[in-house]
Amino acid sequence: MTVCRPVSAPDVMARKGAEAPLVMVTAYDAPSARTVDAAGVDAILVGDSLAMVVLGYDDTLQVTTADMAHHVAAVARTRPNALVVADLPWLSYHVNREETVRNAASLIRAGAGAVKLEGGVKRIEAVKAILETEIPVMGHIGLTPQSIHALGGFKVQGKELDAAQALTDDAIALAEAGCFAIVLECVPDAVARMITESVPVPTIGIGAGRHCDGQVLVWHDILGFEAEGHRRPKFVRTYAEFERDAVVAIEEFCSDVRAGTFPSSAETYHMTDRMTEALGLYGDPIALDEPELTQ
Ligand code: KIV
Predict the structure, then answer these.
(1) Could you tell me which of 152, 202, 156 has the C-alpha nearest to residue 181?
(2) Measured between alpha carbons, how far is 97 from 90 in angstroms, rounded to an integer?
(3) Closest ligand 1 atom number to CA of residue 216
(4) Which of 53, 132, 141, 220 is least buried, going by the fewest C-beta atoms within 10 A?
(5) Which helix (H) or strand (E) holds 276?
(6) Confidence class of residue 273 from pLDDT cuts 50, 70 and 90?
(7) Rounded Cα–Cα distance for residues 30 and 67 (Å)
(8) Residue 228: is its pLDDT beyond 80?
(9) pLDDT tens, residue by residue, 32-51
(10) Max CA pair span of the chain
(11) CA 284 – CA 287 distance, rounded (Å)
(12) Best residue for ligand 1 mutational test, from 107, 140, 217 (most atoms within 8 Å of Cβ)
């Protein structure tokens, strides 16, 4: 009998250079976690993209550690086989060592198996502090949405030689500090390849081409949920149009209700005829000398 145990951070780390790329998909609640785990992903990222794709904010800066823990717990309660990685939100690891460790610990207590934070060389102290408490850390460099104001928008990073070298230095510093994997977001594929070949831990790309050790996408992007007017980035491949299909399904429900065809008799709880009579719904009530159950 094979015992199926959940994927761990060391399992993910051991996949460096493996033939089959790692797959990570975001999830934010029990239904999304069930779908990605049933599909067989290696890791579930409870991303701070929560702010934008679930909570309707314009950027990721609005979510707190408490918001993240709330959603991590919902994902963890589904007991997925995949590793649950939780994003440390903006300002949860920037203030001091104690706050950093406490915030990381609260995501682990909510059910995560690892945390992810954004930034390279600048964040090494935070990475080390978290690792000292035995919490595995995933890095994230390139386009780091928590730095949106400093970067001047959601833009491809590392396009110039100096910037590409700085990203490689960031990745090496994160790997040397002990990160078990590194997300590369929105960088040219040649840069992603250089980084992937420079570090002994898996790189997981989003908008970083095919030379990474794995790929990650956002659940809502894969399934075709998007706010009106939102432009799909070129790196997103959408496999379904669930937002459109959901509107069609709910329109059908509205028209069934308005036409009086919902609920049908089969979708309704009925009493026995005798009980109905006793309640006087179709005439005078009769005395009941024995209890009857509803059907
Ligand atoms: O929050 C998120 O969804 C992410 C992915 C884009 C990697 O960090």
Answers:
(1) 202
(2) 15
(3) 7
(4) 132
(5) helix 273-278
(6) confident
(7) 15
(8) no
(9) 999 999 999 999 999 999 99
(10) 91
(11) 10
(12) 140
